[in-house]
Amino acid sequence: MDAPKKTIGKTIFFSYMEIIIIQKYITKNLDDLNFVKINKALKQTQSFLDIKYAIIKNNKKIIYPKNENSEELIFLQNQLIPFITNKYHNLNKNNFFSFKMASKKSIGKIIYLNDEYYLVVYSDFSKYRKYSSIVNLILLIILLFSLIITFMISKKVSKKISYPIIQLCKYADKVGNRQYDAEVIEYDYKEIDQLSQTMNKMAVQLSSYDSTLKTFIQNASHELRTPLMSIQGYAEGIKYNIVEDTDKAVNIIIEESKRLTDIVNVLLFLSKVDSMQEKFTSNMINIEDIIKNCIEKVEGIAVIDKKKINFCPYNYDFEITGDEEMLSRALINIISNSLRYCIKNVNINIDSNDKNVSIIVKDDGPGIDRDDLEHIFERFYKGKGGKFGLGLAISKSIIEKHSGSIIAKNNDEGGACFIITLPISK
Questions:
Q1: Does the 283-423 domain belong in CATH 3.30.565.10?
Q2: Which CATH number describes the domain made up of 6-131?
Q3: Across the strands, what pairs with 100?
Q4: How is domain 190-274 classified at the CATH fold level?
Q5: Quick check: 84 and 101 in contact, CB under 8 A?
Q6: Tens of pLDDT along 190-202?
Q7: Residue 397: which of 385, 379, 414, 375 has the closest Cα?
Q8: Are 273 and 401 in contact (CB under 8 A)?
Q9: What is the pLDDT of residues 368-423, one digit of tens each?
């Protein structure tokens, strides 16, 4: 005979609630010795695993079932009750049991009802094996169907996800070959749609940058070609004794060389600012102090040209974080530009809100041509009287590296207006 197997017993009795109810019902009616009700209730019970019940007294007398001619009663009297009696001397411990006699293997449990009666719950284990095989077969079929459905769904979902990614890869390849036609495609998946929109924005920005770069190269080539041609012309004139006034020719060569050097230095500086190779120091800067210092540096030009720079202090210590030297260079470029085009006055004011401080530079000149406004910060774009067309471009780059912004517009009363906005340090 096999030893009791608690795990198997618990698995068999998945109709456990039925057993609990039967136990409570029997216990209640035992108090009244109402065996008629008990017999009737037990006869009406049915279980998926054909669970059977027997009630025995502590003297091992069978109270239920009562039918003396039944096969089940004979099995209980001749096999099950003797096995329990020999195996378990103390029936109060609710023991699980498992035994095999002849070809019949049973598994069950002894349930304590009171000091006199016990409930024996048992079932033919072979039936459990039969049902277990059926259940396993059903589970296997369900598993196979689940795998097929899962495969079909995953294939469909993966195709739905991979298709837009393949399309985006093709688009990225086009962008890599400088084909910047924006293909705005909407996708069902939020993340992929965001990626698509971001790539479209990237293409637009790259297209703009590429166009700006081409224009810059063209303008730079033009600006560099003019002094080089002048130098080359006078140098060849001196070599072949064509130029009569060699001293004048040499001076022109020197001046054009200096001009060429200035252009190259400005271009190098602008390139370093753009690529962040130019190291920016980060210090606390009083905005009014930096404006006053910049005015002092350019005031000599204003005096010579009989012009005036007017600054109205805000009387509040605004502080920003940044590189004082770089910001001074940007501000000097703006003020110098205003001095170049003003008639008599350049006015500088400060405005602020909770987050930013604005430096407003106005002049009383003719203002900026409407056609020039949108190009004024582009490199080598020169207005009337401009030098290289790089000063305002440098100012814009420096200010943007300080998380600021600059705009240009015309005053209602006439003249140009530049507004520099920088974040206030907290």
A1: yes
A2: 3.30.450
A3: 105
A4: Helix Hairpins (1.10.287)
A5: no
A6: 777 788 888 888 8
A7: 379
A8: yes
A9: 888 888 888 887 676 665 555 778 888 898 899 888 999 999 988 889 999 999 99
